[in-house]
Automatic annotation (TrEMBL):
A Pfam match: Ribosomal_S18
Protein name according to UniProt: 28S ribosomal protein S18a, mitochondrial
Single Gene Ontology MF annotation: small ribosomal subunit rRNA binding
Example GO biological process: mitochondrial translation
Keyword line: Ribonucleoprotein, Ribosomal protein
InterPro entries with a match to the protein in the record: Ribosomal_bS18 (IPR001648), Ribosomal_bS18_sf (IPR036870)
Domain of life: Eukaryota
Phylogenetic classification of the source organism: Eukaryota, Metazoa, Ecdysozoa, Arthropoda, Crustacea
Keyword Nucleus: no
PANTHER family per the UniProt record, alphabetical: 30S RIBOSOMAL PROTEIN S18, LARGE RIBOSOMAL SUBUNIT PROTEIN ML66
Gene coding for it: Mrps18a_1
GO cellular component, one term: mitochondrial small ribosomal subunit
Length: 151
């Protein structure tokens, strides 16, 4: 059975304090919600639930952010489909480009497809060398709402 990874921006679980009170013959047990001590460290979302997580959080992901990009990959190194990852069409294309750039740069050797498991030094010509990308080669993807308003 394959393991499923999800990118989630759901609300954290609430911690409750159990309070027992006895009033005559009646014992009242209550669960009171306690504020989290890490509340100031929680990522604040934009409030809209229909946007994809990357658009909603306004993340500027680069090809060097391997830990973030690995959340969008299966265990064999292939990209998860949009219906599983929950990202929009534009961000799916951007993640696809960034993962390809990271794999070609040699930043994700353990998460590359099986066809690329050959020894890099035995590859032909320029393909045996790692690739280095400038940040300006990554085209910015506009959020869906601003792309629609530009029309």
């Amino acid at each position: 059975m394959a393991q499923h990874k999800t990118l989630c921006t759901a609300r954290p679980a609430l911690v409750k304090q159990i309070v027992c009170a006895e009033e005559g013959n009646v014992t009242v047990i209550q669960g009171r919600v306690m504020p989290s001590p890490r509340e100031n460290r929680v990522v604040q979302t934009g409030g809209g639930t229909c946007a994809c997580p990357l658009c909603q959080l306004h993340l500027d992901i680069k090809h060097t952010d391997v830990l973030i990009l690995s959340q969008f990959l299966r265990s064999d190194g292939c990209l998860l489909p949009r219906r599983v990852s929950g990202v929009c069409r534009l961000q799916q294309r951007r993640v696809q480009q960034l993962v390809a750039m990271a794999q070609k740069a040699g930043l994700m050797p353990n998460l590359a497809p099986s066809s690329s498991k050959r020894d890099p030094r035995r590859r032909f010509g320029y393909k045996k060398f790692n690739k280095y990308y400038d940040e300006s080669t990554i085209r910015d993807v506009q959020p869906f709402s601003s792309a629609m308003s530009a029309r």
